[in-house]
């Protein structure tokens, strides 16, 4: 399989009651989902009594929030979300709250509705909840690049060091001040020119050891192959910070693979407005973040959820 052989067809448009789903104006593999404003207003009204705490303590409430959104749309909406996330031609979309609210609790509820239309989020050991909110700011003393503003956070997949499937991920921008740079960097596996070389390399299916840093609260190591098949298509599992090669040859393979992806012309930079989220298939999309320009007042808060498909 070669990136050049992929037949490029523009993504179809889906319209339904209260929403329109069409190709993202800037990125050919991504969709943008636009909910009508009255749908957003009505959704927020109907879930106004559901607190973050209720969502965290009572798992069925999370699915009920998804149900509330679905009731305001048509029955195809949930199916279309899952179809897009599974569809190799896309595998991702953006959607937002269109400035109808700036309340952080509303962001949690909205992201919960979307994640539970896709499937079920995994327990996030860093936050000890089904979602995690975290800040990127001028100073940071953490033990990974997640919260370090001025470094490029290189392309990777999530869930590499946990022993459970991580089919999709959701990232939502909750707050941002004095931020220049720091855009999301995304790469669809089929857009990577050097894919063939690394996929056919003898180390492509070598089970590398992945270990999490202390802040992730995950103590067991796992073995992961860099490339594997899913739905009869090649997929990738990789993050430079948590993979432990044992030989110089292995280290070279990983280093060159990471470098090649960073240099890929297929890489896209996504600007996410506050109140918008992106959902991606975590098996054939890689994600990362560019460094920010230095600013002592820099502040960004993000929400993330990662999970598996159920239906
Ligand atoms: Fe990540």
TrEMBL record:
Coiled coil: none annotated. Pfam families: CsiD (PF08943). Keywords: Iron, Metal-binding, Oxidoreductase. PROSITE patterns: ACTININ_1. Gene3D superfamilies: Clavaminate synthase-like (3.60.130.10). It comes from the Bacteria. GO terms for molecular function: iron ion binding; oxidoreductase activity, acting on paired donors, with incorporation or reduction of molecular oxygen, with 2-oxoglutarate as one donor, and the other dehydrogenated. SUPFAM superfamilies: Clavaminate synthase-like. NCBIfam families: PRK02963.1 (NF002814). This is Protein CsiD. It comes from Halobacillus litoralis.
């Amino acid at each position: 399989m070669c990136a050049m052989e992929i037949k490029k067809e523009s993504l179809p448009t889906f319209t339904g009651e209260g929403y329109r789903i069409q190709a993202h104006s800037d990125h050919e593999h991504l969709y943008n989902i636009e909910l009508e404003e009255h749908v957003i207003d009505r959704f927020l009204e109907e879930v106004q009594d559901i607190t973050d705490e209720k969502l965290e303590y009572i798992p069925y409430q999370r699915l009920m929030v998804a149900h509330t959104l679905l009731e305001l749309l048509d029955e195809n909406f949930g199916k279309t979300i899952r179809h897009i996330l599974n569809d190799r031609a896309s595998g991702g979309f953006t959607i937002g709250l269109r400035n109808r609210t700036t309340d952080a609790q509303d962001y949690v509820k909205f992201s919960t509705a979307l994640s539970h239309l896709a499937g079920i989020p995994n327990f996030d050991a860093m936050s000890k909840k089904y979602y995690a909110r975290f800040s990127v700011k001028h100073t940071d003393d953490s033990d990974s690049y997640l919260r370090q503003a001025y470094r490029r956070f290189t392309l990777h997949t999530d869930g590499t060091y946990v022993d459970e499937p991580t089919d999709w991920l959701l990232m939502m921008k909750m707050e941002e001040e004095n931020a220049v740079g720091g855009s999301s960097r995304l790469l669809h596996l089929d857009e990577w020119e050097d894919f063939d070389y690394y996929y056919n390399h003898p180390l492509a299916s070598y089970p590398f050891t992945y270990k999490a840093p202390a802040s992730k609260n995950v103590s067991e190591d796992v073995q992961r192959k860099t490339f594997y098949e899913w739905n009869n298509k090649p997929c990738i599992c990789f993050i430079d910070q948590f993979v432990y090669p044992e030989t110089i040859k292995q280290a070279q393979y990983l280093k060159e693979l990471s470098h090649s992806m960073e240099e890929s012309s297929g890489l896209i930079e996504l600007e996410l407005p506050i109140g918008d989220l992106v959902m991606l298939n975590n098996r054939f999309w890689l994600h990362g973040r560019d460094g920010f320009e230095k600013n002592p007042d820099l502040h960004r808060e993000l929400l993330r959820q990662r999970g598996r498909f159920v239906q």
